[in-house]
Amino acid sequence: MGRRDLYILPSFHSAMNKKAALELPVNMLVVVIISIVILASGITLMYKFVGGAEDFKKGIDAKTDAELERLLTDQGQKVALPLYTATVEQGKTHVFGIGILNIREETSQFRVQVELSKVVDAQEQDITASVDKAGVEKWLLYDFDLFSLQQNENHKQAISVNVDGAALPAQYIFNAKVFLASDEQYG
Fold first, then answer.
1. What is the CA radius of gyration of the chain?
2. How far apart are CA 146 and CA 137, in angstroms?
3. Pairing mode of beta strands 140-141, 171-180
4. Could you tell me the pTM of the whole model?
5. Measured between alpha carbons, how far is 106 from 110 in angstroms, rounded to an integer?
6. Mean pLDDT throughout 79-107?
7. I want to staple 78 with a disulfide (CB 3.0 to 4.6 A). Which of 129, 138, 161, 187 is the partner?
């Protein structure tokens, strides 16, 4: 009988196992890096939202707060809206303060309502009809829910106006009104 030679060839499977063994840690490293980037982006975004909410929560600046306190307590005004005009650029925000003093003889519920009244262009022409009223009123951020005040108690509320970046350059006039729970206007 003839001689049989034994040849040892490298196994295809062992080469694949080595390649797979190397790919697994590399893939894991890529997944970890992507996860860290997404987590960091999420945390940054969360801080922006929380920071913006805190700024709005602070709401009224010290000067407006002091003026509201003076008008409500010293002068006894039922509704006070000091510093009620401002020039706000497109894409910017301004916070107004409104104060309510309950001079009724019982605890009462109140709510604030702000609506667009008129829009005037640079030539002082009324252009209200050409403006999307609902879109402009979306610039407003304030608490429109009912709140209770005891007799002689006052409440200060922030009204934030965030002018849209695509807003027409004009003078926007808003009416801020205070109503009782019965929808009777107060002050």
1. 32
2. 19
3. unpaired
4. 0.61
5. 12
6. 83
7. 187
- Cα–Cα distance, 93 to 143 (Å, whole number): 16
d(CA 171, CA 122) in angstroms, rounded, equals: 8
- Between CA 40 and CA 2 the distance in angstroms is 71
Three-class SS state of 5: coil
Strand spans (E) along the chain: 79-80, 93-101, 108-120, 140-141, 147-149, 154-162, 171-180, 185-186
Structure tokens at 114: 């702000």
Q: Mean pLDDT in the chain?
A: 79
For 73, residues 6+ apart whose C-beta sits below 8 A from its C-beta are 101, 154
> Which SS3 state, helix, strand or coil, does residue 72 take?
helix
Rounded distance between C-alpha atoms, residue 138 and residue 158, angstroms: 15
Q: Which tens digit of pLDDT belongs to each residue from 114-133? A: 888 888 888 888 988 888 88
